[in-house]
């Protein structure tokens, strides 16, 4: 345990933590205060931190326009669907890599992980004509497939790190008792792997929820836009930008991820650290 000797060390440490906290939380505080400012207080030469005439008009306009609710619904469908399917596919792939021995197992896993080496823009160039040939451009299902392709390699590796540390003796004992492989996976392994499953699901959901590049490129219909393109195209323009409305919309759109992480952070941390120490 770190022990600070002397008042100078304690003051230095406290000052360091204060600077780090200010660096992390000042943008969030600025965003929250800007969301309750009228437009006249935003576009000034020297903006003030605290609003002189605080208002909730930006939040009222946000929901009265109606498109924000539609964007949130589309993001919930695509991000939630992508996260759910990623967890399912990554579970079977990781369990196969961790507990079965067959020819080509390691090269196949390395090939899957190699997809993380390429920039997302390069993957998009390859993915776009595939979805176009399948008729899945400008569809929610096409966007869900894109999210799965991007999150599956890292999700598989996270679950592999967890499954490989589950004692093989438990699985062998179940096989001796006559249990099938699917029964072992679903009734024995998955309950033990719940923190890792939550970690992969939450990681995939947050990545898809914050996505802009893929959703902006693969979705063109206004009624199918997700949160990222919706905020960009609704509040940012060449001639003028509604920064107060954009900050209000950003706060509302971040609430699902913040609330989900607040409830699941215990499982998330357990899942991230489970594969770090070999049992």
TrEMBL record:
Q: What keyword terms does UniProt attach to this protein?
A: Cell membrane, Membrane, Transmembrane, Transmembrane helix, Transport
Does this UniProt record's set of keywords contain Cell inner membrane? no
Give the location in the cell.
Cell membrane
**One matching Pfam family, short form?**
BPD_transp_1
Q: Which Gene3D superfamilies match?
A: MetI-like (1.10.3720.10)
Q: Which domain of life is it from?
A: Bacteria
Identify its membrane topology class: Multi-pass membrane protein
Q: Which family does it belong to?
A: Belongs to the binding-protein-dependent transport system permease family.
* UniProt-recorded name of the protein: Carbohydrate ABC transporter permease
Report the source organism: Paraburkholderia agricolaris
């Amino acid at each position: 345990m770190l022990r600070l000797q002397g008042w100078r060390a304690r003051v230095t440490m406290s000052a360091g933590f204060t600077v780090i906290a200010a660096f992390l939380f000042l943008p969030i505080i600025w965003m929250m205060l800007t969301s309750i400012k009228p437009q006249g207080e935003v576009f000034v030469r020297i903006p003030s931190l605290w609003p002189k005439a605080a208002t909730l008009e930006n939040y009222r306009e946000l929901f009265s326009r109606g498109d924000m609710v539609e964007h949130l619904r589309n993001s919930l469908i695509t991000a939630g669907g992508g996260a759910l399917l990623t967890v399912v596919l990554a579970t079977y792939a990781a369990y196969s890599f961790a507990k079965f021995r067959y020819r080509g197992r390691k090269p196949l896993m390395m090939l899957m992980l190699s997809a993380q080496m390429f920039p997302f823009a390069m993957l998009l160039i390859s993915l776009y004509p595939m979805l176009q040939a399948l008729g899945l451009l400008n569809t929610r299902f096409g966007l869900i497939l894109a999210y799965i392709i991007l999150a599956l390699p890292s999700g598989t590796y996270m679950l592999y790190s967890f499954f490989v540390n589950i004692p093989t003796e438990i699985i062998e004992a179940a096989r001796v008792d006559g249990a099938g492989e699917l029964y072992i996976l679903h009734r024995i392994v998955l309950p033990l792997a719940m923190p890792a499953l939550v970690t992969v699901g939450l990681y995939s959901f947050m990545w898809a929820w914050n996505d802009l590049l893929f959703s902006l490129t693969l979705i063109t219909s206004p009624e199918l836009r997700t949160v990222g393109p919706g905020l960009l195209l609704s509040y940012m323009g060449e001639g003028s930008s509604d920064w107060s409305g954009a900050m209000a919309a950003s706060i509302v759109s971040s609430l699902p991820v913040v609330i989900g992480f607040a409830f699941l952070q215990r499982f998330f941390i357990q899942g991230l650290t489970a594969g770090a120490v070999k049992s």
